[in-house]
Amino acid sequence: MSELSVNHLLGIKYLNEDDIQLIFETADHFKEVINRSIKKVPSLRDITIANIFFENSTRTKLSFELAEKRLSADVINFSASQSSVKKGETLIDTVNNILSMKVDMVVMRHPNPGAGIFLSKNVKASIVNAGDGAHEHPTQALLDSFSIREKFGDVAGKNVVIVGDILHSRVALSNIFALKLQGANIKVCGPKTLLPKHIETLGVEVETDLRKALNWCNVANMLRIQNERLDINYFPTTREYTQQFGVNKMLLDSLDKEIVIMHPGPINRGVEITSDVADSKQSIILNQVENGVAIRMAVIYLLASKIK
After folding, report:
1. pTM, 2 dp
2. Which of 115, 109, 113, 114 is nearest to 90 (CA)?
3. CA-CA-CA-CA torsion for 61, 107, 91, 229, nearest 10 degrees?
4. Nearest residue to 138 via CA among 11, 265, 51, 7
5. Share of the chain above pLDDT 70, in %
6. Which domains does the chain have, with CATH numbers?
7. Residue 57: which of 28, 26, 81 has the closest Cα?
């Protein structure tokens, strides 16, 4: 397969396994590129990409921007907090104004689930979802799976536990879809109040005992508590959460085997993981960041090749 089955990257649930393998093979190539002394390729010299962020983001925004520049695309950045959106302009008007400047692709983060899908049906451009509310974050899930593949050689058959605030996490949902497609076994672990009802219907198991979950898994993906999305108290105190669901070096060293620690960032050090875990040799958090640029280069390159 030499091209994606989709014209937009709206969510992992719209991809098939061949799409994921094609993205990974393309990312392998770009990972070589970004480790050369000259890190740019002229692949997208004639493509203009707009990064439109309606929510704050540091890592994802920088990662996309770097990926676009490594591919030699023309890049415009748009931050909603400094824009006419504040004056009441609609999403479609905002994007159409940007597209009238002859933009080919829009990378968008938006607080409303489904914003990217809505946009893809109403504007003429390739849309990349950089996170829509608590719904999906497809490039994060792709870079997470890519990092597991890099560490173990394959994702199939691996035991992955996702720990923390599953209820509000777009990373968790996209990861579940991506890992299932590739044949991994998945458990989720966290306070019952932060686990969605009927989560088992997605083909994952619930484990409320962190030690059991860690002894079962090859990889633990530690999510942060999304304080900005918590409208009520889902657990008594942060300290109590950390005691039950936080990972420290003592816990890690007491397990029956050595496991890999991942985190999508930003880390609340001392809450979901301690600094000595985040910075340990079992952590592949910085590999995830590096792989994020290669994965986003691959996604943008493959989508751009479908723009007629």
Report:
1. 0.95
2. 115
3. -50
4. 11
5. 95
6. 12-136+289-304 (3.40.50.1370), 138-286 (3.40.50.1370)
7. 81
